[in-house]
Design a protein that fits this description.
This protein has helices at 35-43, 82-85, 122-126, 128-140, 154-165, 177-185, 207-215, 239-244, 257-268, 287-292; strands at 2-8, 11-16, 24-32, 53-54, 58-63, 69-72, 75-76, 96-97, 105-108, 113-115, 146-150, 169-173, 189-191, 197-202, 217-225, 248-251, 278-282, 301-304. The chain has 10 helices and 18 strands. Bound molecules: zinc ion (2 copies).
Length: 308
């Protein structure tokens, strides 16, 4: 079968590879891409486990054994570490990562699979992975009514939509007018600059944005960091507001199995319009060029259809 294989930084080749081995074989119908895939292409990633490596972690397809339509979750929590035992599987210390969606087939443990609700397309189902991370991030916040999301990329927009569905007043901040228009189509308000809010989500993944998010929190407010910065990044924090204004700072990482199922249900119900976030559809041959292309205009996810 054919697969996109990373051989080193920025060295992506589409090659004939052996059938993947694992519990359940899934024929990939659609795999969506995100910023993490761009990072993996350019710089590698700790979860790739060395080269050569397969990647693609937002994957939907059909079980080869039963014909069932499934989302291939990108990880299975160990169930035994301290966070897992404390009900926080998103930060499991020893997850099994399931990568390799940019290929004709992927093998996955049965525990990674989720049934796709009827009526939801494969590309929409693949987006349940990032949406689940947003469900998780929303849960890391408070119930404040007055919320800002810094960053109108696909994660920021999905997160804003979830908060709008909860009846909150959501402001999405992004420099790009196209993304502000997308935020408004999702029921949020938008602005190029961040004002003060009770709850601020950072969804950019840059040091400057982390610092801006903290500066925008009102006294007694909460900041949730959703965007991952390059490893080793350090942010500068003014201790004054943290101390005297009791600003709460929280990270949000990944998701749990239940959050993936919640995301699938939201997508199937049309509560989150995945088509408004779907971008170009490419095959494996065009994947590298598409991942390298600079992001411009609207925030949309690349859809990879690896089939022959
Ligand atoms: Zn992703
Ligand atoms: Zn664990």
């Amino acid at each position: 079968m054919r697969a996109a294989v990373l051989h080193g930084p920025d060295d992506l080749r589409v090659e004939e590879v052996e059938e993947p081995a694992g519990d359940v074989l899934v024929e990939v119908r659609a795999a969506t891409a995100c910023g993490t895939d761009r990072k993996m292409l350019r710089h590698g990633h700790r979860i790739l486990g060395g080269y050569p490596a397969r990647f693609g972690h937002e994957t939907a397809g059909v079980r080869a054994d039963t014909g069932e339509r499934v989302l291939v979750g990108d990880s299975v929590a160990c169930g035994a570490c301290a966070p897992c035992l404390a009900g926080r599987a998103a930060i499991c210390r020893a997850p099994t990562w399931v990568l390799g969606g940019f290929a004709e087939r992927i093998a996955a443990p049965a525990a990674a699979l989720h049934a796709i609700p009827d009526g939801l397309d494969f590309a929409g189902a693949a987006m349940a992975e990032p949406l689940a991370a947003c469900v998780h991030a929303a849960g890391r916040g408070t119930d404040a009514a007055d919320v800002a999301v810094l960053g109108g990329g696909t994660i920021g927009l999905m997160l804003a939509r979830l908060l709008v569905l909860e009846g909150r007043d959501v402001l999405v901040c992004d420099r790009h007018a196209e993304r502000r228009a997308q935020a408004e189509a999702f029921g949020a308000r938008s602005a190029p600059e961040l004002g003060e809010r009770d709850l601020v989500f950072e969804a950019v993944g840059r040091v400057e944005a982390w610092e801006q998010a903290v500066a925008a929190a009102r006294p007694g407010g909460t900041v949730v960091f959703v965007g991952g910065c390059p490893s080793g990044s350090a942010v500068r924090l003014d201790t004054g507001p943290l101390h005297y204004d009791e600003i709460d700072l929280r990270g949000a990482f990944h998701h749990t199995r239940a959050e993936v199922d919640r995301a699938l249900a939201l997508l199937a119900a049309g509560d989150v319009d995945w088509r408004a976030l779907a971008g170009d559809v490419v095959g494996l041959e065009d994947l590298a060029a598409a991942l390298r292309a600079p992001a411009a205009g609207e925030a949309r996810k690349l859809v990879v259809e690896p089939g022959p």
